[in-house]
Design a protein that fits this description.
The chain is built from 20 helices and no strands. The radius of gyration is 21 Å and the shape is globular.
């Protein structure tokens, strides 16, 4: 009980301080990243620091991280689904097909190539690590595209592109992760058969169908209840949060991709729900999103595998630098002509750089350890996440102002 109270006091106190203090710091010219501060706080209070908190008190640290990361990503993708206009996906099918097709495949293979050159292990283990760090993190992406600074400097088309990509490709990374896992567990022919029948047909397609059905039904019922004045603003928020966790739990129990199903459910709900009630839910969702996302970075800071990082030596540095430079930027630059919002070189550079790696990679890395028994996916992915957290967190505000200056197009939502 004392450990629980210590955890509540420390983590809730951090959220309170950041909620009250970051606005003041930004107004005085300081530009801290809340996620960086939360991770550093986790290091400070964790086993490597003061030893006030430890994930081992809750069970296997990686299992705890996996489940907390899963819940955090679910909230983040729901927030994105509610923020985007209901018709956004139908009106931008070509752009999203390019981003989720050739761009995402390039991100996987490029990251895998860097992992294979930097780390020990088989090609398939490198492909697994590459898949783990492929998805654009919805939590860190939210931090980049939301807020007054982003609204004043980043055009709406780019904010929507980054948000939509981060929302979809967290669930879409699932088959990339499980292909190498199946190959490492089974004969090649059995692995491919299992991947097609189980992963693609059930865990991906099934998740889309289940999420769309549940989200559409909930949205339609909410619209009817709202028209009859049976639903209050607080009830709408409750509906959205309950739908998120219900879809995540039910679809995961059915053996399908819960994260993808949650996002699709949010999009379907957004299509069907009453627009005014959806807007109310979105505003409250942002508050809940902030409360729910900072703790995972505290947990991440507590669970950093310092000894395993040190054992990698310069190979670890090469892994981080290589992934951050070649995973994403070359693909967006080469395919910018096929991605409508990237109508100028500065836009391609901005979007190509800001594909942060974070909580989604933590989830897939811990899942990979559980499925394969190898600790290397966690060691490598956690190091890349820390590098991305620093690189993207520290560059977000200055590069946002830079883009606002060179673009000269200050749209607002």
């Amino acid at each position: 009980m004392s450990r629980l109270n210590v955890g509540l006091a420390l983590i809730a106190g951090l959220v309170l301080v950041l909620s009250l203090g970051t606005g003041l710091l930004r107004s005085r010219g300081y530009l801290p990243s809340e996620q960086i501060l939360a991770a550093l706080f986790g290091v400070l209070v964790g086993p490597a620091g003061l030893g006030l908190l430890s994930l081992t008190g809750l069970g296997d640290p990686l299992v705890v991280l996996e489940q907390v990361a899963r819940l955090t990503v679910a909230i983040a993708v729901t927030s994105i689904a509610l923020r985007l206009p209901p018709d956004y996906y139908r009106e931008n099918l070509r752009t999203l097909a390019v981003v989720l097709g050739p761009v995402m495949v390039f991100m996987w293979l490029a990251s895998a190539a860097v992992a294979w050159l930097s780390l020990p292990g088989s090609v398939w283990l490198a492909l697994l690590i590459g898949a783990v760090v492929t998805p654009t993190d919805p939590v860190l992406a939210n931090a980049i595209v939301v807020g007054q600074t982003a609204t004043e400097n980043i055009p709406e088309r780019l904010r929507y592109l980054l948000s939509s990509e981060a929302g979809i490709n967290d669930g879409a990374a699932y088959p990339f992760v499980f292909l190498p896992i199946f190959v490492m567990q089974h004969r090649p022919d059995a692995a491919v058969l299992a991947w097609v029948t189980r992963t693609l047909l059930w865990e991906v397609l099934g998740a889309v169908v289940l999420g769309a059905a549940i989200g559409a039904v909930v949205g339609r019922v909410e619209r009817w209840a709202s028209s009859e004045q049976f639903v209050e603003d607080t009830s709408v928020f409750t509906v959205v949060v309950a739908m998120t966790f219900a879809v995540l739990g039910v679809v995961t129990l059915l053996g399908s991709d819960g994260i993808l199903a949650v996002f699709v459910a949010g999009v379907a709900y957004n299509w069907q729900a009453d627009p005014s009630d959806e807007a109310d839910a979105q505003r409250v969702e942002e508050v809940f999103n902030r409360l729910f996302t900072l703790p995972i970075f505290v947990f991440f800071g507590m669970a950093i595998p310092w000894a395993a990082w040190a054992a990698l030596g310069w190979a670890g540095v090469g892994l981080v630098v290589g992934v951050l430079l070649v995973r994403r930027l070359p693909a967006f630059w080469a395919l910018r002509g096929a991605i409508d919002p990237l109508d100028r070189p500065a836009a391609a550079l901005f979007v190509g750089w800001f594909g942060p790696i974070g909580v989604a990679a933590v989830f897939y890395a811990t899942l990979a350890v559980r499925e394969t028994g190898s600790e290397l996916p966690w060691t490598a992915a956690s190091l890349v996440v820390a590098g991305s957290l620093l690189a993207h967190g520290l560059s977000a505000t200055p590069l946002t102002h830079w883009y606002g200056g060179v673009d000269g197009e200050h749209e607002s939502t």
